[in-house]
Write a sequence for this structure.
């Protein structure tokens, strides 16, 4: 019989401990500590309390928890001495029916892993959807994680233990993330479309106005109609726009959405999560026959990543009147102009200017996005409230010294361009850390025509400097450029530097940010505020209307722009729940 939270909150300590037995393998101390936080406001609250007990425990206790878990397809499975929970999970993953070759491979991986880390390999074999990973996925993950740093792998093992616990709690409390599953399934189906050259390799790449891109637009538009949107169209730049009307004509709209294009060989959730979460909310409103005092406009932006043409935020930029007609003459790698690609896609270029929105007709813009970083994962939090989208400045430059013989040029007489840039990189690392939320990167560093026995005479480099506010960003830029000049002068070098991009910071509108905070708190999850280091469509809409974002935790240490980018059905579910709460709050505000 499934438990309820009310029963757990009212149970005696012994009864409550018994109810949570088996959630964490052979480690009752976790439940004991978490139960001191009763009453739990939600299942998400209980999950966080359990994870918090582990996170604040000693390293010895954490390692003890990891070592309490059995090996995958190991001796305990063969001896049939696993716990009922582990038996069920390994059986569902097919590990009890391994071929001799698969079993031998897993046994070797177990041995290699234990020798490297000193604890068993832990993997939530029921996976991010809860339906189970297949044996090959398990083996591939096993092999990949053998290369992790030991400290990182301890954290990865604990993250997987928490996911195992989350699924076991779902079972105990009969909590099925139905909407999270739907959102997950939409992502999987949309990821079936990928550009040629990548699709054949099983890689996801969707760039602006390719066949795969247009297929994605069609799928999204069909799903929007199925969800009950009143109007659905593909606009003049390829954005898919769905509108769910308000209860009364003439009311304002809430705009939301994100992009559906991807980087090359990217992940399935960057951008697309911000389309499907509000789609699920609109579908539930439609199923309930409910209208709000405002309309909802969900936009799947056609382009944000700048992969096919040198025009980023094309989709959202068109909505604020920032479409540059010169872009139409840009050519892709195959020589196809943007104009030709638009015409081939059946888009009406003459209508692009008509896409500009009147901000007076909107309550504002909100966006849900996968975090694309490790912070929420490290804090065991499913959601984060964004305070600001970082402003950034980019430069491309070249340090110029003198190429000379590596064997005959004394160390104190060298004019080494590469060492100078390396010194600058170390300074950026130190200077950005002083601000906490500032970041700086030299992502490109190239010695043209370099040779193993030649002191580098030239070094091409890039600078990417970001911060949550423009004054903080500008102070970082000023200090870095001053130090660049000092390095060059001290080393007898000269340099060139060209600014290639400047974007203003986009602080969240206080009222909309507060709505996200209230929604997260309503779910029983601690409210965590954080800046966004990456750019998003919200920063374009910020130029004409208030905006605020919600981040959703990613798996695999939050990696993004990578095939390992992932999140879970449960985290998708809480994102849908939080979005629904914001809709309720805004509806209350709009009531006469």
């Amino acid at each position: 019989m499934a438990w309820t939270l009310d029963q757990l909150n009212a149970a005696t300590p012994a009864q409550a401990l018994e109810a949570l037995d088996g959630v964490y393998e052979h480690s009752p101390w976790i439940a004991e500590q978490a139960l001191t936080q009763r009453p739990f406001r939600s299942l998400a609250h209980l999950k966080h309390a359990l994870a918090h007990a582990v996170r604040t425990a000693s390293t010895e206790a954490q390692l003890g928890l990891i070592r309490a878990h059995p090996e995958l397809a190991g001796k305990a499975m063969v001896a049939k001495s696993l716990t009922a929970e582990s038996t069920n999970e390994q059986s569902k993953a097919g590990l009890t029916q391994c071929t001799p070759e698969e079993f031998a491979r897993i046994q070797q991986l177990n041995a290699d892993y234990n020798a490297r880390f000193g604890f068993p390999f832990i993997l939530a074999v029921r996976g991010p959807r809860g339906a189970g990973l297949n044996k090959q996925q398990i083996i591939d993950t096993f092999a990949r994680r053998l290369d992790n740093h030991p400290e990182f792998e301890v954290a990865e093992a604990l993250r997987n233990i928490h996911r195992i616990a989350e699924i076991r709690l779902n079972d105990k409390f009969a909590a099925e993330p139905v909407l999270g599953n739907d959102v997950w399934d939409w992502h999987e189906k949309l990821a079936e479309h990928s550009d040629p050259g990548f699709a054949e390799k099983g890689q996801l790449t969707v760039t602006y106005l390719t066949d795969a891109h247009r297929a994605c637009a069609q799928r999204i538009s069909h799903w929007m109609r199925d969800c009950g949107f009143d109007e659905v169209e593909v606009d003049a730049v390829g954005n898919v726009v769905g509108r769910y009307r308000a209860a009364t004509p003439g009311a304002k709209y809430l705009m939301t959405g994100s992009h559906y294009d991807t980087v090359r060989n990217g992940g399935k959730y960057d951008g697309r999560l911000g389309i499907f979460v509000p789609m699920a909310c609109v579908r539930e409103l439609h199923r309930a026959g409910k209208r709000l005092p405002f309309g909802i406009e969900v936009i799947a932006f056609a382009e944000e990543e700048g992969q096919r043409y040198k025009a980023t935020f094309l989709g959202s930029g068109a909505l604020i009147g920032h479409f540059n007609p010169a872009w139409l003459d840009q050519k892709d790698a195959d020589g196809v102009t943007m104009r030709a690609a638009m015409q081939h896609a059946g888009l009406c270029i003459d209508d692009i200017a008509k896409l500009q929105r009147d901000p007076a007709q909107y309550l504002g813009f909100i966006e849900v996005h996968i975090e694309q970083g490790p912070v929420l994962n490290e804090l065991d939090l499913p959601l984060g409230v964004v305070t600001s989208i970082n402003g950034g400045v980019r430069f491309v430059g070249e340090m110029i010294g003198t190429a000379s013989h590596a064997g005959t040029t004394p160390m104190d007489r060298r004019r080494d361009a590469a060492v100078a840039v390396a010194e600058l990189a170390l300074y950026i690392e130190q200077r950005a850390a002083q601000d906490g939320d500032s970041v700086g990167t030299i992502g490109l560093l190239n010695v043209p025509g370099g040779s193993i026995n030649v002191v580098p005479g030239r070094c091409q480099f890039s600078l990417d400097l970001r911060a949550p506010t423009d004054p903080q960003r500008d102070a970082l830029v000023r200090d870095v450029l001053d130090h660049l000049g000092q390095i060059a002068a001290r080393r007898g070098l000269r340099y060139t530097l060209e600014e290639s991009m400047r974007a203003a910071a986009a602080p969240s509108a206080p009222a909309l940010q507060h709505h996200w905070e209230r929604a997260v708190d309503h779910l029983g999850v601690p409210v965590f505020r954080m800046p966004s280091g990456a750019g998003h469509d919200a920063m374009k809409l910020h130029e004409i209307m208030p905006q605020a974002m919600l981040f959703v935790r990613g798996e695999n240490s939050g990696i993004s722009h990578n095939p390992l980018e992932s999140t879970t059905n449960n985290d998708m579910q809480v994102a849908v729940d939080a979005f629904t709460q914001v809709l309720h709050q805004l509806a209350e505000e709009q009531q006469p």
Observations:
- Residues 193 and 212 are 5 Å apart (CA to CA).
- The radius of gyration is 26 Å.
